[in-house]
Write a structure and sequence with these properties.
There is one protein chain. By secondary structure, the protein is mostly helical. It has one domain (about 5-295). It has 12 helices and no strands. The protein is globular. About 45% of the residues are buried.
Length: about 300
């Protein structure tokens, strides 16, 4: 076990209740932080599982759905297990633990209607990049002299930003190119776009591109803020990866307009999602798990 992974794994294991109040408080803070991180990531993973459910899909899509669901259930199990340990060590925390558990359970139970919720709250997804941008701007306003001795987290920021750019590019390509090819099989992409332009239905292509552009601006601002704020490598990477996972949750909304445009213009005979769509959702769930693990193990300062 590496030293950096120790804080994350230690809180998963039962330990004797320390007699020292300060030691007990430190242990309980670590457990609470870890449980909340895993439960939040588990709820996000459950939404990805709901989006990945293959209604009448192929065997391959069922396999991907099973993998996404397994990732989500693993994170939820880790979070709930730590809540049990939290209450076991301090029974007076039972009401707090119950509230967190009920909230996480309700969030996870919304997974079967994740697609419906995505469309019902379509514009709410704009809050994601706006929040990330606002957080980045707040970090940019931080006085770097307060942490002048801390190294800048170049490695974590570059890795997180690179992951984000790749994910946004794949999502944009999926909505603007792979989805039309899947819905209208056998027709070249340029012909599909010619039909959309002729019918005045080509506006749908801009939605995934605008989504990618908004999130790209937010991630770059957030990355610059993390560099200025001199967070830890793990913390900076964890924040950026969490933002990327949140961005991918909006994927169904970004593809809705293109799907409607195609449905109104041509006879769609293929799948309503691209072959890459389930794999992108699996990547989103894995990114949520990675973000939770990184943020749990990040140094606090």
């Amino acid at each position: 076990m590496t030293a950096s992974a120790a804080p994350m794994l230690a809180s998963l294991l039962p330990r004797p209740t320390p007699a020292d109040p300060l030691e007990l408080a430190a242990m309980q803070r670590a457990r609470l932080r870890s449980s909340v991180a895993w439960l939040l990531a588990g709820v996000v993973g459950a939404q990805f599982a709901g989006l990945a459910f293959p209604f009448g899909g192929t065997a391959g899509r069922w396999v991907v759905f099973g993998l996404v669901a397994a990732v989500a259930l693993s994170m939820l199990a880790a979070g709930f297990a730590q809540l049990v340990l939290l209450a076991w060590a301090q029974p007076r925390r039972a009401p707090q633990v119950a509230g967190i558990a009920v909230g996480a359970a309700l969030g996870a139970l919304l997974a079967p209607v994740a697609g419906l919720l995505s469309f019902a709250f379509g514009l709410v997804h704009l809050a994601g990049p706006v929040a990330a941008l606002a957080f980045g701007i707040m970090l940019l306003g931080f006085d770097p002299r307060m942490r002048s001795a801390m190294p800048r987290p170049w490695l974590g920021v570059l890795a997180g930003l690179g992951t984000g750019i790749v994910a946004l590019a794949v999502g944009a390509i999926d909505g603007a190119a792979l989805l039309p090819l899947a819905m209208v099989p056998g027709v070249p992409l340029h012909e599909i776009y010619a039909l959309l332009v002729a019918a005045g239905e080509d506006g749908g292509v801009w939605v995934p591109l605008i989504w990618a552009a908004l999130w790209a601006v937010a991630l770059v601002t957030l990355a610059l803020g993390l560099l200025r704020n001199r967070r830890s490598q793990r913390g900076a990477l964890g924040v950026l990866v969490a933002a990327v996972a949140g961005a991918l949750l909006a994927l169904p909304v970004t593809q809705f307009s293109m799907g409607m445009s195609l449905g109104d213009t041509v006879v769609t005979q293929g799948s309503h999602v691209s072959p890459a769509y389930p794999a992108i959702l699996l990547a989103g769930a894995l990114l949520a798990a990675l973000a939770a693990g990184l943020l749990i193990g990040a140094r606090q300062r």
